[in-house]
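Problem: given the chain below (295 residues), write out its structure.
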Amino acid sequence: MEFEKDWIANAYEGMSRRQFMAKLTAAGAAVAGFALASQAVGGEIITTPADGLSVAEGKVASGGFQVPIYEARPAASGACPVVIVIPEIWGMHAYVKDVVRRFARRGFLALTFEPYAREGGVLQIEDRQALLKVVNAVPDARVMGDLDALVAYAKRHPTARAGKIGVTGFCRGGLYTMLFAAHSPAVQAAVVWYGQIKPAKTPGVRTEGPLDAAGRIRAPLLGLFGGADQGIPVADVKELEAALKAAGRTVEIVIYENAPHAFHADYRPSYRENVAKDAWARCLAWFNAHLGTCG
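Solution.
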């Protein structure tokens, strides 16, 4: 559970608690859940326009349920490689959709989904413990099933290069990125943004973490982590890197020395512009190298 507290600690970084609370009060935000996390104290929120893109919302069947999805791709292009973006614990909100459009602008068919649609979504949950109770009860197997359904949808997509599928995710989505790369042979490249490497295991919910599954990760993997992340020790990151290298995998790990958790999330106080830009450039280069672009 200590890992789940890291974003609050990162939000306080560089300011006193009183200063941080004053900023939230001025913004009129509820001091809990997504509302607390979403105050852009650390940077300006990035908004990527949809002009020149083909953007759509829809649903994909998974386990007898219609999972909401969001997709974007260049409007005028040939078949594009696919990047699946896995959300954080708040689900498919504005930042995640914006990241999808950012990938589309760089020559990918990008897709995301709502992992917590069966629970009615979680953005409206203001109490943090109530939020965690919901998301921490979602079995990894269900998420893997939803991602399998998304991959199947992508392979049928008329504008997709079906053999070129990458996956990326932030925070909880980074954890799922590693687990899915171990689960699915369809994954051709993976980029992990500060995903937990040694999560707690719960019967019926999670039986293994990324370190346990490292030997089954065959896709080239880029890991982007913060050296000042209070929830993911650098030692854990290095242990994952060593395990992947010992298994003969293609892996590159980047640790930004002074960066906190969620350094790419421009809607949160943890955002670090220079680090985020460098990490984004590395992410794009990784997918370009292993997936290509539209054509």
